[in-house]
Write a structure and sequence with these properties.
This is SRCR domain-containing protein. Disulfide bonds join 40-50, 289-299. Its main location: secreted. It is found in: Secreted. It comes from Scleropages formosus (Asian bonytongue). By secondary structure, the chain is mostly beta strands. The chain is 6% helix and 32% strand. It contains 2 helices and 17 strands. Strands 3, 4, 5, 6, 7, 8 and 9 form a 7-stranded antiparallel beta sheet that branches. A hairpin with a 2-residue loop joins strand 11 and strand 12. The two termini are 22 Å apart. Residues 323-341 have low confidence and may be disordered.
Length: 341
């Protein structure tokens, strides 16, 4: 397997834009190897578009499994930081995104607030990113317990200084001078906050935000169908899954959804909650795709902010031709994806 193929897989799984390939043993002994001699081209956007040997026709054994490592970046390094207050000249907010894990406060690489009613620190990533994890390095020369109970929040709102954005994780504790990583479940946002929801002092010696650029990107999934390539269309936005209103929804819109999900050609565009009513917000309305777009983000639409005349009885859905794509569920038998910093 070549690097081009690894990069296509990483992008399709929303795990960054590049990857490296190595060999490993199958995690599931005896499982079928579906694909061999896969050679993705620069214009391929999904694995299903890449030339390969016929499905299931290969001479691979359990020792010939492709291990793909998708590369994530510390996107905080190019951001700007602020905090609720600053204790002294050593404790500037920007110290937590200087790329230095020095845990000695007088070394000038840690932040330090005053005693605040709800101390917080925030980095503005300058764009919307899909955040996979956040790594925090705690102070090593004093007061390691100050981080206990801190909340990591990721989102696009600056209400309450960003401290009401979707919750990524709660920090139980971090040993003095140590670093701990917290998974954020692919949360999208421009702002990453670390906030103590109680009176105290907040000190951080490094905050690394691992993820990739997702400005304008709208991750999709299909729910309620009897196979993976049909169902109610849901998209991830502002930290939660929501639905699409069926106003103006037609086969051109369905074509783009099916293409983005690697499910082949669209067979039908459904309205009136044909796959059941969804929950949560209705994020999109009046989608007007031409049918040639690669992603739903490229189509004209009305992006809602919890304010819409639509209800979930108008949830949009699709049926794609991708019956054979169900075999993709078995790809975990030969592809292991590992996210690294």
């Amino acid at each position: 397997m070549e690097t081009n193929t690894a990069s296509v897989i990483c992008q399709q799984l929303d795990c960054g834009k590049s990857g490296t390939v190595s060999n490993t043993e199958s995690r599931l002994k005896g499982a079928p190897n579906w694909l061999d001699i896969v050679k993705c081209r620069p214009h391929d956007s999904t694995l299903w578009q890449c030339p390969s040997s016929p499905w299931g026709q290969n001479k691979c054994d359990d020792g010939e499994v492709a291990l793909i490592t998708c590369e994530q970046k510390n996107v905080a390094l190019k951001g700007t930081a602020t905090q609720s207050s600053q204790y002294d000249s050593y404790g500037a907010a920007g110290n937590a995104i200087d790329g230095n894990r020095n845990t000695k406060y007088t070394g000038g690489s840690c932040t330090h607030t005053k005693q605040d009613s709800k101390p917080w620190w925030r980095v503005d990533l300058q764009d919307v990113f899909t955040v996979t994890s956040v790594t925090i390095t705690n102070r090593g020369d004093c007061c390691s317990e100050r981080i206990d109970g801190a909340e990591i929040r990721v989102g696009n709102s600056l209400d309450d200084n960003g401290n009401q954005n979707p919750l990524c994780a709660v920090v139980p504790s971090i040993a003095a001078g140590e670093s701990s990583s917290f998974q954020c479940n692919w949360t999208m946002g421009r702002y990453v906050n670390v906030v103590l929801p109680k009176p105290g002092i907040l000190t951080l010696c490094e905050v690394e935000v691992n993820g990739h650029d997702s400005s304008g990107y709208l991750p999709l999934r299909l729910q309620g169908g009897n196979r993976m390539c049909s169902g109610r269309v849901e998209l991830w936005y502002e930290g939660s899954w929501g639905t699409i209103c069926d106003d103006l929804w037609d086969i051109n819109d369905a074509q783009v959804v099916c293409r983005q999900l690697g499910c082949g050609t669209a067979l039908k565009a459904h309205g009136n909650a044909a796959f059941g009513r969804g929950n949560g917000p209705i994020w999109l309305n009046e989608v007007k795709c031409w049918g040639s777009e690669l992603h739903l983000r490229d189509c004209p639409h009305s992006l809602q902010d919890h304010r819409t005349s639509c209800s979930h009885k108008e949830d949009a859905g699709v049926t794609c031709e991708g019956e054979n794509y169900c075999a993709a569920l078995s790809l975990s038998a030969w592809i292991s994806v590992v996210s690294t910093v």
